[in-house]
Amino acid sequence: MPEDLENKDDSRVFFCPADRGGVPGYAVREKAHDYLGTSYQTNIMLIGPDQILVLPDAFQPLHLEVNARLKNLTLERVDNHSRMLLIGDYGSYNQWRLQPHPRDDWKELAEWHDRPDCHNMAFLDGHVGFINIHKGLYVSDEYVVLPFEELYGLAHEIQDQLP
User: Fold this and answer.
1) Residue 144 has what DSSP assignment?
2) What is the pTM assigned to this prediction?
3) Which of 38, 103, 123, 131 is geometrically suited to a Cys-Cys bond with 14, CB 3.0 to 4.6 A?
4) Is residue 1 part of a domain?
């Protein structure tokens, strides 16, 4: 193996050069990668039973339904592979989860590419895109975070009630 590859830090693949922090619960200006080992956040709707935080908010019925279905999730069950978010810039996570920003400057810090609400995202079919993650939208024309199409109706009902 060439020497330059032997000494290469493989963890750099998990580092976004634009990472400037803004991770809730950590020092404001420290990079997400420094704290978490990655600059990216996986779509938690895909990773396992009871991983979705059930909050006392409008999304609670949807989160409970997703948690109940995750144990039977297979790649074949997931519709919309070309619109399904798999992983993306860390700041995208709190956009679609409709979480309040814990600090006034969090949102600005978490938008690493200097375009409001836009993040680099990888989709389940393997393509990547720089897209606008809409506040509180689990299902949009550009992307979906729900792996269960049968829950899109419930998601739309909740989204339609958002301010």
Assistant:
1) B
2) 0.81
3) 38
4) no
Minimal CA–CA distance to 88: which of 59, 110, 60?
A: 110
Question: By C-alpha distance, which of 118, 71, 122 is closest to 96?
Answer: 118
In the chain, beta strands by DSSP E: 40-42, 85-89, 118-123, 128-132
Task: Judge whether 11 lies within some domain.
Answer: no
Domain of residue 139 covers 40-160
**Across the strands, what pairs with 132?**
118
**What residues contact residue 67 under an 8 Å CB cut-off, 6+ apart?**
49, 50, 51, 52, 54
Radius of gyration of the chain (CA): 17
Q: What are phi and psi of 129, to 5 degrees?
A: -155, 155
Number of folded domains in the chain? 1
27 belongs to a structural domain: no
